[in-house]
Amino acid sequence: MGVVRVSILFVHAWTAGVRGFMPMRARLQVRRAGVHRGPAPVQPGRVPVDADARCLYSGPMLAVGRGLSGDRRIDPACEARMRKLLLGVAVVVAVVAILAVYVTPWPSVWVIRSIFDRGAARAAAALASKVPADVRIVADVAYSPDDGHARFDVYRGATTSPDAPVVIWFHGGGFVSGRRGDVANYLKVLAGRGFTVVNVDYTIAPEATYPTPIRQANALLGYLDTNSERLGFRRDRWVLAGDSAGAQIAAQTAALIANPDYAKVLAIHPGVRSAQIAGALLYCGVYDVTHMGEGGGVLGWFVHSTGWAYSGDRAWRGTGALSSMALAPFITPTFPPTFISAGNADPLGPQSVALAGALAAQRVAVTSLFFPADYSPPLAHEYQFDLDTDAGATALERSVQWLSGLAD
C-alpha cells in the first residue's frame, strides 16, 4: 500500500507539472511557429515545431481520441513519443516509490511538507488582519550560535507588563515541516492581549533526528535564563507552549525539567529550574506515538513516514527509537499546571484527552477545553488558529484567562 500511495501522489505532482510548465513551453513554440489550434496540414518531411513539444501539448488529448481540433485520428509519431514519455514516468514513479518505502523517508516528507506548508500559509493569511498594529517585535535572535535553525522572535503587546507571563511557543508541523513564521500572526494576536511571547524555531526532521528539538528547547531556556533581563522579561512565570508537534516538544521539555529521572532517560540536563516554569499551554498535540497509525490508511502512512524521519530508523516501531516520547509514564506531581485542548474531529484529539487524564491522576492542575463528539461544525486539527469560528475565539479567550491567572 505504501508503494501505491506514494506512486499516486507522485503522479499527481507530475501531472500538475506537465499541465503547468511543459504545455507552457509547447504553446510558446507553437505560437512562435505560427501554428494554430485548428487543423493544419503538415508538409511531408517538415516539422514546424519541436515534436516533443507538440506531443506534450496535444499528445494526451490525441491519446484519448481528441486532437486539438476535435479530430479523432491519432498521430502515430506523437503516440510513440507519448508512450516513451509515460514509460519514463512509470520508471521514475517506481524508483521514487521504492525509495519512499524502503530507502529514505524524503519522498514522503516532501509530500507532507507541501501539504502542511499550504495549510499553514492559508491560516497565517487569515489572521493577518487581526494582528494589533502596536505589537513590539524583537526579531531573529540566535539562541545557539553554531546552530542556524536555533532562532526566535519576541512579541510584546503595547501594554504588556514586565511581570506578565512569558509564553514560549514551539510551532507544529509533524516534526518534519513548519517554521516560526507559520504561527507568527497568531502569537502576535496573543501578545496583544498582554503577554510576552517567544516564537521559536527548531530543526525539523530528517535534517535532524530525535531528540534534537528537545535539546534545542532546553538550550533555548538556558539562553533565556541568561538573557532575560536584556530581553525585558522575568526569569520565571514561563509557559511552555505549542501546537501539534510543538505541543509535544513543549510538554516533553516541561517533563524533563520537572522529573530528574526523565532527564536521565533523555540524557539531557535541564537548562533551568522547575520553579521557573509556571505552566504548559498545549494545543492538538501528540504525546505517545507508540500505537498511532497501526491501522494503516493515510494516518498510518503519515505516522510511519514522520516517525522514520524523526527517529532516523525505518523500523522505529520495533526498535523503540521513539518510546521515550511517551509522556504519561514520566508525569509526576511536579509537572506544571496545564491548559490542554483539541478539536472533536482531530485524529490526535484522543491523545490530548489521555494526557489530561494522566496529569489529573498525578494531581497536576489541569484546565481542559474539549468539545462534545456531536459538536458542529466539526473541529479539525489546529482548530484554534481559526479565530473566525466560535470555537477558535473561545479557545483564545480561555487561553488568555488561564494565562492571566498565572500572574495572580
UniProtKB/TrEMBL annotation:
Q: Which InterPro entries match?
A: AB_hydrolase_3, AB_hydrolase_fold, GDXG_lipolytic_enzyme
Its transmembrane ranges are 85-103
Q: Which residues form the Alpha/beta hydrolase fold-3 domain?
A: 167-372
Keywords assigned by UniProt, alphabetized: Hydrolase, Membrane, Transmembrane, Transmembrane helix
SUPFAM superfamilies (UniProt xref):
alpha/beta-Hydrolases (SSF53474)
Q: Give GO terms: molecular function aspect only.
A: hydrolase activity
Which PANTHER family does this one have? AB HYDROLASE SUPERFAMILY PROTEIN C4A8.06C
Name listed for the protein in its UniProt record = Acetyl esterase/lipase
